[in-house]
Amino acid sequence: NEILAPHIWLWIAARGINIGLYTCIFFSDETKFNKKDYNLRKIQNHKNLNSLFARKINVNKYQFDIFLQGDKETIFFDI
∠ CA 36-40-45 to the nearest 5 degrees? Predict the structure, then answer.
């Protein structure tokens, strides 16, 4: 069975981007499920894996930053 951690899929479209970009938000405090997540396990060795995690900054409040390029570039999925 495929295990999926709590997540939110995003489709990003903006002026100057010819195609929509897909990424996924996972929650940093869901470590038990993140370790077993089907999609995360497929990309474990990526240097920017942390770019997929929203950081908990307060009760019921998370921060998720998207970087389109550079050293912190968010992982985008080819869907």
Answer: 115
Q: How far apart are the first and last CA of the chain?
A: 21
**Tokens found for residue 36:** 């077993």
Prediction pTM value: 0.88
Report whether 46 contacts 31 (CB < 8 A): no
> Is residue 12 over pLDDT 90?
yes
Average pLDDT value for residue range 25-35 = 96
Burial classification of residue 26, based on how many CB atoms lie within 10 Å of its CB (0-12 exposed, 13-18 middle, 19 or more buried): buried
